[in-house]
Write a structure and sequence with these properties.
By secondary structure, this protein is mainly alpha-helical. Helices cover 41% and strands 5% of the residues. α2 packs across α3.
Length: 144
């Protein structure tokens, strides 16, 4: 009788180990995150997550109280993202009238790919006198 239990225990343990290997040890499945997609379900090179991953769920827009931008904010490309993607990123960063500012970002393309501080965009936005806080929020949501 003892040999029967040993075999059953070994089979159950092997099944458990196989199950854990298939799910990456996580209850939700593999540990690799799914690639970012656009609304059409295609991969989108325009959206990136900063090091450390996306903002924690349930947080305020921008990842900080009051919608203040943080380093956890997902950034989109000012050069390649669609106007809707830019508007969403700006809204998440706490930018007032995000749709208007997204239109301005798209209108003044292209931006130098090597200018990480988006100096040209800052200069274009300053013409509208939005205030330094608004410009900083816009820039925090974008990358070249």
């Amino acid at each position: 009788m003892r040999i029967g239990r040993t075999i059953w225990t070994t089979v159950a343990l092997a099944a458990l180990v196989t199950l854990m290997a298939c799910t990456g040890g996580q209850p939700g499945g593999p540990t690799a995150p799914a690639p970012a997609t656009t609304g059409s379900g295609t991969n989108s090179p325009a959206v990136t997550s900063p090091p450390g991953g996306p903002s924690p769920p349930g947080g305020a827009p921008g990842g900080a109280p009051g919608g203040a931008p943080t380093s956890q904010l997902a950034r989109v490309s000012a050069n390649t993202a669609g106007e809707g993607q830019i508007a969403t990123a700006l809204r998440d960063a706490g930018v007032p009238d995000a749709e208007r500012w997204a239109k301005e970002v798209v209108e003044h393309r292209p931006y130098p790919a090597d200018d990480r501080s988006l100096t040209k965009l800052r200069e274009e936005l300053a013409r509208y006198n939005p205030g330094q806080d608004t410009i900083d929020k816009i820039i925090s949501a974008l990358q070249p």
